[in-house]
């Protein structure tokens, strides 16, 4: 089911048994073993080697007694396949020891839970994250973690993904996920820059993928989404790839309360590849690569009245209606990451150079945009990022593990605009029906660099102190800042079923390099595209102090709960806003900000049954907008300068819950989401209505089929009771357009394993 299976990243993750080389202090014996990778039991049997039992293996399943039949089967197994799996497990576990989330709060979802999420592997990545505590839903596929707007770092198989554009096309495909963890709280020193949360994705791989898979998915809103998964291994090489396409008529949230949006077709293509080559038992080279391309029609609000006169156009003509607006946007993202990993007895390291390119292209409807909003602007926003990350861990003493690393990247951003706007007089009224053409091409650059050093000190077998320090530097075409940031987490496990933690972190979060220069503002002065004012302070780096404390408690082997509380005090608190019809989010900041809250999560799993329930509370306060002031009305700026306001993306309360039954042939689930409502109105003084959404689904697996291995037939109903709910009403700080949540939809899928 879609339960948030709670894990505490207080110690590195190990499998049930971790197999290592023989050493002087070890003994050789024949013992039963079980190899588990990414939550899947790959092999059981007897092994004559050294076995190191991991005390802190996170599992809610009791250890099963190995039968004599299993032992005999394992003894008869050839050595070569077992060695291949063992080496893979060794390298994957060693990679986890390079940068574990020691002291951070972690919520995880595995493959079984993903299948029980509404729409399963065809669900958007944001829908997977909404089943974790502290995650709030927003429009354009965005989610907010612990009251932050953005600020998430994405890692795939332990490799950092360079930050992309702020678009609404979610390039991470749920189909690639074996499991995903969300790390929040007082992150250790190895995590820098985007620190609202670390989204750590473990992909399917050639060695763990049971079969290739072909899927056909479709249903409401003319949805059609075929996909293909291929994977395998041969000798020391393994691969996993996915190809998918999605076409539907609900690409962006409907701006009206109608069941179907007007002009909202999208077509998206995605491809992902993971390739790994083991040089030997201690060294591996891997390649991650991804490509995504998406076309979106921007949905229209019907019934708008014309505002501006355009030469040669008659307002009474039938074509001059807002429902015929034909604005569109294209988003594309590409990245490639090469990683070299070395894992010896005490030393583990990884070096990962990477490259990324992203582009958003907004194409207006020239005539109608001019008539209804006074400006038609073709925008092209490009991002190019190149960099490298190096991390290592070394066991320097029996109770100390040293970790260190470096990160450096260069980003080039370019915004090219070709605009049509009407001239206006001093009173702001249109003076001519012939538009002016204004071309403005600007660019920015930024360099981000960071280094850290930390020590995991295991004071006793129940008490661990993880402390460190990192230094970060941000230099750009509009600013230059740096900071030394201490981090410390204390983890205490007084009983086997209880883990307590408390921590402190200082964070340094640079803005995206999207500064608009005063020369651009001056170019549009005296037109219908003029800025609200001419104050244009560059966005600064957000610096903050963060504290977090919590408990992870196993009530029974099947039932566990987590309770966590946090507080953050920030200078130059960064936010994002949409300041035009093009869906390109731009940064701005508040001089002071405070975010605090608490989370509760629970999960229960026994046999085929699973239950989960999450609840979170968050409160935000911010004062005085101190960058990109030209985007805001002077009256609103003045109010926020004198009063602390709540952030527009604050969802004060949120909850998720569900239950599922999963067996060899049957999968059935019921799922629930609750949202308190985001902020709206002048200076965010109002709030959107609360909402609650129910989803259900059922899947049957045919195991005896003429072709392939299994055939899965599935049906999902999203928003079962057809709840009409509004995420945004078009008001609030940095909000441009209204958006409603999806109405009821019924979807079907046919999946063949071959």
Write up what this structure looks like.
By secondary structure, the chain is mostly beta strands. The protein is 8% helix and 53% strand. It is built from seven helices and 39 strands. The strands form seven sheets. It has a 22-stranded antiparallel barrel. Strands 1-6-11-12-9-10 form a six-stranded mixed β-sheet. It has a two-stranded antiparallel sheet with strand order 2-5. The two termini are 24 Å apart. Mean pLDDT is 87; it is low at 1-87.
Mean pLDDT: 87
Tell me about the largest β-sheet: 22 strands, antiparallel, barrel
Distance between the termini: 24 Å
**Helix/strand/pairing class, anyone?**
mainly beta
Low-confidence stretches: 1-87
Strand content: over 45%
Q: Radius of gyration from the CA trace?
A: 27 Å
Q: What helical percentage do the residues reach?
A: under 10%
Total E-strand runs:
39
The count of helical stretches stands at: 7
Principal-axes geometry comes out as globular
What attributes does this structure have?
single chain, 754 residues, mainly beta, 22-stranded antiparallel barrel, six-stranded mixed beta sheet, 7 helices, 39 strands, 8% helix, 53% strand, disordered N terminus
Summarize the entry for a quick read:
With 754 residues, this protein is mainly beta. It contains seven helices and 39 strands. It has a 22-stranded antiparallel beta barrel. It has a six-stranded mixed beta sheet with strand order 1-6-11-12-9-10.
Topology:
Elements: E1 5-9, E2 17-19, E3 29-37, E4 40-49, E5 51-53, H1 68-76, H2 79-98, E6 104-110, H3 111-115, H4 125-129, E7 135-137, E8 143-145, E9 152-156, E10 159-160, E11 177-184, E12 197-203, E13 213-219, E14 223-224, E15 227-234, E16 237-248, E17 266-278, E18 283-297, E19 328-343, E20 347-363, H5 366-373, E21 375-397, E22 400-421, E23 436-458, E24 463-476, E25 479-495, E26 498-509, H6 518-523, E27 542-554, E28 559-578, E29 585-606, E30 609-625, H7 634-642, E31 653-662, E32 666-675, E33 679-680, E34 686-687, E35 691-702, E36 710-718, E37 726-729, E38 738-740, E39 745-753
Parallel strand pairs: 9-12
Antiparallel strand pairs: 1-6, 2-5, 3-4, 6-11, 7-8, 9-10, 11-12, 13-14, 13-15, 13-39, 15-16, 16-17, 17-18, 18-19, 19-20, 20-21, 21-22, 22-23, 23-24, 24-25, 25-26, 26-27, 27-28, 28-29, 29-30, 30-31, 31-32, 32-35, 33-34, 35-36, 36-39, 37-38
């Amino acid at each position: 089911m879609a339960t948030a299976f709670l894990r505490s990243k207080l110690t590195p993750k190990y499998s049930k048994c971790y197999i290592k080389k023989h050493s002087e202090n070890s003994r050789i014996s024949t013992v039963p073993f079980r190899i588990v990778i990414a939550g899947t039991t790959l092999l059981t049997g007897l092994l004559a080697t050294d076995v190191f039992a991991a005390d802190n293996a996170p599992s809610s399943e009791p250890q099963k007694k190995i039968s004599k039949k299993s032992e005999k089967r394992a003894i008869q197994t050839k050595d070569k396949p077992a060695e291949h799996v063992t080496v893979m497990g060794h390298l994957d576990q060693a990679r986890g020891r390079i940068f574990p989330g020691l002291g951070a709060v972690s919520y995880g979802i595995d493959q079984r839970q993903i299948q029980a999420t509404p729409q399963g592997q065809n669900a958007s990545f944001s829908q997977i994250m909404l089943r974790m505590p502290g995650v709030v839903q927003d429009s354009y596929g965005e989610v907010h973690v612990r009251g932050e707007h953005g600020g998430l770092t994405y890692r795939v198989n332990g490799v950092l993904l360079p930050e992309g554009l702020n678009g609404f096309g979610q390039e991470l495909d749920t189909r690639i996920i074996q499991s995903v963890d969300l790390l929040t709280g007082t992150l250790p020193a190895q995590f820098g820059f985007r620190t609202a949360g670390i989204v750590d994705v473990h992909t399917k791989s050639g060695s763990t993928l049971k079969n290739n898979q072909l899927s056909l998915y479709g249903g409401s809103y003319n949805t059609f989404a075929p996909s293909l998964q291929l994977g395998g291994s041969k000798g020391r090489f393994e691969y996993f790839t996915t190809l998918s396409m999605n076409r539907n008529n609900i690409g962006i949230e409907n701006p009206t309360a109608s069941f179907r949006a007007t002009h909202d077709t999208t077509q998206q293509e995605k491809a992902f590849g993971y390739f790994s080559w083991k040089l030997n038992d201690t060294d591996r080279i891997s390649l991650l690569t991804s490509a995504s391309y998406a076309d979106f029609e921007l949905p229209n609000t019907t019934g708008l009245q014309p505002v501006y006169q355009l030469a040669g156009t008659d307002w009474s003509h039938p074509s001059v209606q807002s429902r015929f607006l034909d604005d569109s946007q294209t988003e594309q993202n590409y990245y490639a990451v090469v990683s070299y990993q070395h894992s010896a007895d005490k030393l583990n390291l990884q070096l990962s150079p990477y490259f990324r390119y992203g582009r958003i292209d907004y194409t207006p409807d020239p005539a109608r945009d001019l008539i209804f909003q006074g400006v038609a602007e073709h925008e092209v926003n490009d991002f190019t990022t190149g960099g490298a990350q190096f991390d290592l861990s070394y066991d320097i003493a029996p109770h100390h593990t040293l970790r260190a690393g470096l990160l450096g990247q260069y980003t080039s951003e370019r915004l090219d605009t070709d605009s049509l706007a009407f001239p206006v007089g001093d009173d702001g009224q249109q003076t001519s029906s012939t538009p002016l053409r204004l071309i403005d091409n600007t660019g920015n650059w930024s360099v981000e660099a960071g280094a850290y050093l930390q020590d995991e000190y295991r004071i006793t077998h129940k008490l661990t102190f993880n402390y460190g320090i990192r230094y970060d530097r941000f230099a750009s075409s509009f600013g230059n800042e740096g900071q030394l940031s201490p981090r410390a987490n204390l983890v205490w496990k007084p009983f086997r079923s209880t883990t307590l933690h408390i921590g402190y972190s200082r964070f340094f979060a640079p803005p995206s390099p999207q500064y608009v220069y005063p020369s651009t503002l001056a170019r549009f002065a005296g037109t219908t595209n003029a800025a609200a004012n001419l104050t244009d302070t560059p966005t600064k780096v957000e610096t903050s102090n963060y504290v977090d404390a919590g408990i992870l408690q196993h009530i029974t082997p099947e039932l566990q709960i987590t309770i966590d509380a946090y507080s953050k005090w920030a200078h130059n608190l960064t936010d994002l806003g949409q300041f035009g019809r093009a869906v390109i989010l731009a940064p701005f900041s508040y001089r002071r900000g405070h975010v605090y809250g608490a989370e509760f999560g629970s999960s229960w799993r026994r046999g085929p049954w699973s239950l989960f329930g999450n609840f979170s509370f968050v409160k935000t306060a911010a004062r005085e907008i101190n960058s990109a002031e030209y985007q805001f009305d002077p009256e609103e700026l003045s109010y926020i300068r004198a009063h602390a306001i709540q952030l527009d993306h604050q969802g004060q309360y949120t909850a998720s819950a569900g239950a599922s039954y999963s067996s060899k042939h049957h999968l059935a689930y019921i799922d629930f989401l609750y949202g308190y409502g985001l902020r709206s109105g002048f200076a965010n003084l109002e709030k959107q209505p609360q909402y609650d959404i129910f989803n259900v689904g059922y899947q049957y697996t045919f195991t005896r089929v003429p072709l392939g291995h299994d055939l899965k037939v599935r049906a999902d109903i999203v928003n079962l009771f057809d709840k009409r709910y509004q995420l945004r009403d078009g008001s609030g700080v940095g909000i441009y357009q209204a958006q409603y949540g999806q109405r009821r939809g019924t979807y079907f899928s046919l999946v063949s394993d071959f």
